[in-house]
Design brief:
The protein is of the alpha/beta class. The chain is built from 13 helices and 16 strands. It has a ten-stranded mixed beta sheet, sandwiched between helices. Bound molecules: NADP nicotinamide-adenine-dinucleotide phosphate and magnesium ion (MG). NADP nicotinamide-adenine-dinucleotide phosphate binds next to helix 10.
Amino acid sequence: MTRLKMKTALVELDGDEMTRIIWQQIKDILILPYVDLKTEYYDLGLQSRDRTDDEITIQAANRIRELGVGVKCATITPNAQRVDEYSLKQAWKSPNATIRSILDGTVFRVPILVDALEPYIRRWKKPITIARHAYGDIYKNTEMAIDGPCRAELCVTMPDGSIKTSLIHQFTGPGVIQGIHNLDSSITTFARTCLQYALDIKQDLWFGTKDTISKTYGQRFKDIFHEVYASEFEVQYARAGITFFYSLIDDIAARIVKSEGGFVWACQNYDGDVMSDLVAAACGSVAMMSSVLVSPDGKYEFEAAHGTVTRHYYRHLKGEKTSTNPVATIIAWTGALKKRAELDDLPKLSRFAQILEEETIQTIESGIMTGDLKELSRLEKPTVVDTETFLKAIAARVDSRL
Ligand code: NAP
Ligand code: MG
């Protein structure tokens, strides 16, 4: 078989530990035999980031802005223990945070559903994609402990030196306060990216805040979403037969549980942090959650939502064959190849990526799976295999389709 040709290179961001091992296995077993793969390779492994003073991360992100599509392996975000373990110059920033800020992107997390696996919430038939606003709120807060009686105020100094104040609380005893903020520009970009993403995949968009309580802060989010929807999307949504649905966040949360899924849920920063983990857990396994970072000008970075699976890596180093789930990383590759194929008008490459995705799911449906999925399986006797055997089983199915 002749391998499929590509036009533009994918930006390939390698990573750490067990996912780095799986990354190479996926390329060797599922991609290189079929595709004359064209990538620009950036090694975001921790040692390489340390060697380049993290410049490699910035270069990779800038290259995604230029070429349009990247695919990323999970990476270690170093803490004090990692600084010791790898003798690092410093505890480098999270690569994902660096890339997100360079692309000004929104992260969409999409669960990968398989019939053979039972979600904890049985009504969910279709994926619920969570879009988390990645700017501001409590993640850029200022907090203060209050030791005793005092008057706490919000205080804003204007360019002309005048001051606006507003009472937070007249304290009679100890307590705590915090200040948070957001920007109209960031909320607008977030609203536009979510509305566009839902339109692209032809699903409804849901959004909720607590605007009855937060009459200025929450209300601003609500107003901006409605403005962007009315001025830029209403006509297109009607044409696509999809809707933008706004409600209070607690009403949304209750409706989510009763829904069948199949929509995009835009969340304020904290809601997205909590709800993405809740949706992932309710769907079964963190290893079945994919993630895509989308910039407002349509640049894409695909990755798995899980981390580098450190515990499996230490077992791998001892020579054990681990049963680490590669599905989310495979879906990152197929997502990136499909997007590249769409932009470069390569229907054969798009078809290959689609087949690889389908056969990955079908392999699990047929009863062959990694250890993390066994508990969720609806099948009588699932066969638990190591990662390499799982990948080879997928390849055999792909071969029979081509
Ligand atoms: P993790 O790597 O996601 O793993 C947590 C646990 O979840 C694992 O020990 C494993 O459970 C299970 N798991 C996750 N992915 C799996 C897979 N593909 N197959 C089977 N089981 C899987 O999270 P972590 O241990 O908190 O973080 C490890 C490192 O990853 C950290 O250095 C962190 O900075 C980094 N991280 C990176 C990203 C990213 O790059 N996007 C995201 C999160 C974390 P069992 O051990 O019980 O089998
Ligand atoms: Mg979280």
